[in-house]
Amino acid sequence: MGAGVTGLLTAVEPVPAEALSGRRLSHLDVLESEAVHVIREVVAESARPVLLFSGGKDSAVLLHLARKAFWPAPVPFPLLHVDTGHNFPEVLAFRDALVARLGLRLVVAAVQDSIDAGRVVDRPGASRNPLQTVTLLDAIAANGYDAVFGGARRDEEKARAKERVVSVRDEFGQWEPRNQRPELWNLYNARHSPGEHVRVFPMSNWTELDVWRYVARESLELPDIYYAHRREVFERAEMLLCPGEGSRPRADEPVRELTVRFRTVGDMSCTGAVSSTARTPAEVAIEIAATRITERGATRADDRASEAAMEDRKREGYF
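Above: the chain's sequence. Below: its structure in token form.
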């Protein structure tokens, strides 16, 4: 595959009731049904929901689920992307093409605007990923969003494994795991006090392998960089990083051209590639089935800062 956008999400068609009668739901059917149920329930209880959309695989799947939840009506809420200014160009191109094709409203909250306003301080040579928290919370407050859908999964990282499907954030946007509500019998409570909001994770029970099998089943299109391609990279801390804004190789870090793909597509400064020959969702799924390290553990430098790096950021209001 070449660089850029290979295509867009496919049209959503509801499954006829007669096709479901007399058969057992597959594992992916159950996950899809649960996610659609969560989306519908939270939207019914919320005044101003929004869906976090970066153009990555998890947010692309989440958007597809949201379209299914309300088909044939349009998605009844906007998309929100927190742009660090150091995102992969291929992912931004995919994001913009998809939003234009589907006629969705996209709100872009730029970290650079937060820097210019003095809300956060950009440290030369450091990742902008931690700076997203202030930008995200400012966007939530400015737009009055009370329910924020995200594509996070419990298998990604141990702090995310503590999350409820519907997770309450206090008036400062902060997360306290001991104050979360029980979700017995799959009952979800999106109520909150004025000034608070909820983060909602309909894909909590999915795994990375589930995501790729679903991408294959639904014929979903993703940015090309999720599949094997030739790219210039350099090695740092046992990770393959791409030269670019925010990730410049040092004198002792030679740049090589290798065949790689990305398991996750965050900020370029802290997102590493993996050596791979997988060029289709089915081939990626085979690779994922054989790995024992999550995509964040294998390719995200920001999660390696400490054992509690993700939890510390989440407590401050991170995704």
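The radius of gyration is 19 Å.
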